[in-house]
Design goal:
The protein is elongated, with a radius of gyration of 31 Å. Helices cover about 15% and strands about 50% of the residues. It is mainly β.
């Protein structure tokens, strides 16, 4: 009997210990779950707060701007200011120079050019003269060199990597020569109006591997344009004349071809926008038709914008924007935006675009939200994005102002 009572007592003690241990583990589990719930609650609150801030940021409308920095400059009579990367290129018939956002002159080149031909790829520029034989190559930081051609220059294209394509006029034929930054001839192509046609427009990819050319020619009394892409790299070495892609368009004039980046390009004709993709052998990914006259073409490394007269009586202009990063480039007709101000330039940001002239500015998001519409305090020659959101450089006759919308 004693053994039984002892056994029962030991069993009761063991069960109490096990119950205590179970209760302890349950308390720990409840504590851990409570901690998890608290963390999840905090995360939900943070996400909701972040979403609130994003929504407020997207909905925020700016009514004015602050000048956060100002540098004096002297405008050159008869000079033109253009964007070169995030710097300012100023050129005239007497020379060119590049200025950074702080007003420091990065380089200066003098020349005498009556009819300037300018080609820009991000922060690289080629400057030549129509019917001249010299090409000045530079980027936003330095002069790279001078290229001399054997024949008169008719057109230019440049790559960010420093390659230059020049259309050169010969007696009976037209040449397209590609030079590296040292002036060495890397490739030459021969064209004739009776076969391949006349090179009306050309563009190089930023890396310099691809060259796109729009040729105009007449076949059986019909005007045609042929867009050809040449691969100047390893892939093109296995193809005749390095011509890796060809597309023909009947009864259409294509005065503009451009590379947006190393694997996306577009061609704008008088009735069609074609978008091409491919880093070695580009193919036509999409085509968009229209039956109205294009007034202007603008682009970035992602977007292509076409300006028409508005198709309604309420607005003056209509901007169609195509996003080349999506499969249908913004839908069959792109995205439509309407505006009424005269414009000297339009440029794209990551998710917005800016329309401006010398006295006023309109900033709008790709969702159609008007973020800013106001007047400048001085006459503006050039407007350049300054990196941060809604911060820009305003170039005037006597200053470079860094502004922040507010």
């Amino acid at each position: 009997m004693a053994d039984i009572r002892s056994y029962i007592k030991e069993k009761e003690k063991r069960e109490k210990r096990e119950k205590k241990q179970a209760d302890y583990k349950e308390k720990i589990a409840r504590h851990k779950m409570a901690a998890v719930y608290r963390i999840l609650l905090i995360l939900v609150i943070l996400i909701a707060f972040a979403a609130f801030l994003v929504i407020q940021y997207k909905r925020r409308v700016y009514v004015d701007y602050d000048i956060v920095a100002m540098t004096e400059r002297e405008a050159t009579n008869g000079a033109t200011d253009v964007r070169l990367g995030n710097s300012i290129l100023t050129y005239s018939k007497d020379g060119a120079h590049c200025t950074d956002a702080k007003g420091s002159v990065q380089w200066n080149q003098t020349f005498e050019i009556q009819d300037v031909i300018l080609a820009v790829s991000n922060d690289t520029v080629a400057i030549g003269e129509y019917n001249g034989r010299s090409i000045y190559l530079a980027d936003s930081e330095r002069l790279i060199g001078e290229i001399t051609t054997a024949m008169p220059i008719r057109n230019l294209a440049v790559s960010e990597a420093g390659y230059v394509a020049a259309v050169l006029a010969d007696t009976d034929v037209t040449w397209i020569n590609v030079y590296d930054s040292s002036g060495e001839l890397k490739w030459e192509g021969r064209t004739h109006m009776d076969d391949s046609g006349y090179p009306m427009a050309l563009s190089m990819s930023p890396g310099g591997e691809l060259l796109m050319v729009a040729y105009i020619y007449v076949d059986a009394g019909i005007l045609r344009t042929k867009v050809g892409v040449y691969n100047l790299g390893a892939v093109g070495s296995n193809v005749s004349d390095r011509l890796v892609s060809t597309y023909a368009y009947t009864d259409m004039l294509i005065p503009c071809v451009r590379f947006l980046n190393d694997d996306t390009a577009f061609a704008v004709g008088d009735g069609r926008l074609s978008i091409y993709t491919g880093s070695h052998i580009p193919v036509e990914a999409s085509g968009h038709l229209y039956d109205r006259e294009i007034r202007s073409v603008f682009y970035s490394d992602r977007y292509v914008g076409l300006v028409f007269l508005a198709d309604n009586s309420e607005n003056r202009y209509q901007l169609k924007v195509y996003d080349t990063t999506v499969a249908d480039a913004g839908g069959a007709g792109g995205k439509d935006f309407y505006f009424d101000i005269d414009y000297t330039d339009i440029f794209f940001g990551k998710d917005n675009f800016v329309i401006y002239n010398d006295t006023e500015c309109l900033v709008m998001t790709m969702d159609g939200i008007e973020k800013f519409h106001g007047d400048f305090r001085e006459t503006v020659r050039l407007m350049v994005p300054a990196g941060n959101a809604y911060r820009y450089l305003l170039v005037t006759d006597d200053s470079i102002n860094t502004i922040q919308l507010k």
